[in-house]
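A common beginner's mistake is to predict each chain separately and then try to dock the pieces by hand. The better habit, illustrated here, is to supply every component at once so that their relative placement is modeled jointly.
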Amino acid sequence: MCAMKVSDMVRIQVTPSGDRAYDVVLGEGALCELPALAAGRTRVMVIHPRALRATAAAVIAELRAGAGAGVETHAFEVPDGEEAKQLRVAGACWDALGRVGFTRDDLVVGLGGGTTTDLAGFAAAGWLRGVDVIQVPTTVLGMVDAAVGGKTGIDIEAGKNLVGAFHQPLAVLCDLSTLASLPAVEVRAGLAEVVKAGFIADPRILELLEADPTGSARLPELVERSIRVKAAVVSGDPREAGRREILNYGHTLAHAIEKVENFSWRHGAAVSVGMVFAAELSRLVAGLDRATADRHRELLRAIGLPVEYRGDRWPALLDAMRVDKKTRGRRLRFVVLEALGRPRGFDDPEPGLLLAAYGSVAAGGVSATGS
Ligand SMILES: NC(=O)c1ccc[n+]([C@@H]2O[C@H](COP(=O)([O-])OP(=O)(O)OC[C@H]3O[C@@H](n4cnc5c(N)ncnc54)[C@H](O)[C@@H]3O)[C@@H](O)[C@H]2O)c1
Ligand SMILES: O=C(O)C(=O)C[C@@H](O)[C@H](O)[C@H](O)COP(=O)(O)O
Ligand SMILES: [Zn+2]
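With all components supplied together, the output reads:
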């Protein structure tokens, strides 16, 4: 795998205050940096989904060849998709680490999409109260968002990502060649978080996607720009004491949709609907101009992402939003845009305004009493 010519890598530093700095390495062949980073460890556990069984085997072979004879390598397979982010799967990871006698100077590698990196990061955060993890995202969404910034966690019955930890990785290796096998529907899901980065901080992203909604012509640039947005935000506020919440744009409703749909919706698809809703709320409560609000729907639709959800689900969504992490007491909190690139928090919108904003995404009109 690493015998091929490795192109120049882009390196983006994340400097979380109070924690060690690390690089996000981006480019074709970034994975080839893993053996050197793993050298000197006694054990490496590669946590990967079923879909990446062959890639994991190749990574293990590279580690055996390049990390030194003393490194013992293990692979642990987890389910594809959101099914991996469950307590019983985290428990299975910890049992696997226990079986091989994983110690504090050993290394976990999270190889896969955002669900895998969230799970592997959480497993690493919990094991012996924290061991090193290197994240190797293999989806667009994982590269531009999930693997960067140290938010790890799992879902529980009460809601999405409700149990987790902040645990910064040692490095993030975004090898663009791993995206060759990624289905188009997963690329589109990842573009939702790219669009988010565009609206909250980097409007050039929106122009690039408007020119080519598949993103394919300029994917490396889109990924790099989005990582730069995320790296800058999490460096300033790694544990979401304040500003980091802007990365939650569109997510209050998105996480509620995911919960109401029993986690069968892709995260990126839910974020797409959530951003159309948040844009309309922004228009109603924060003075966002109509053209920028409409731009959300137009771009997300052009990409092929959903911009509507069931109108009869509003009561269930409202219930789910009450356990969002931004909620304080009984006050719901949303991220809104005052203008393009100017996000901020907004507390406790009037119920009528929330319902009106939901009207902008409600297929078949809103039914406030629900089904
Ligand atoms: N921690 C964070 O900051 C953060 C940020 C954004 C999203 N997330 C989380 O990320 C998750 C979504 O991540 P995702 O969209 O990457 O989904 P995912 O991890 O479910 O991956 C999508 C699917 O593609 C498969 N896959 C992964 N890489 C592949 C490849 N290269 N080729 C073929 N198949 C491949 C996976 O097995 C899965 O079936 C959600 O749980 C979301 O909450 C976390
Ligand atoms: O990194 C962050 O901070 C984000 O909010 C990024 C989001 O895209 C991501 O979906 C995150 O997992 C949501 O976090 P949560 O704290 O709302 O669960
Ligand atoms: Zn997200």
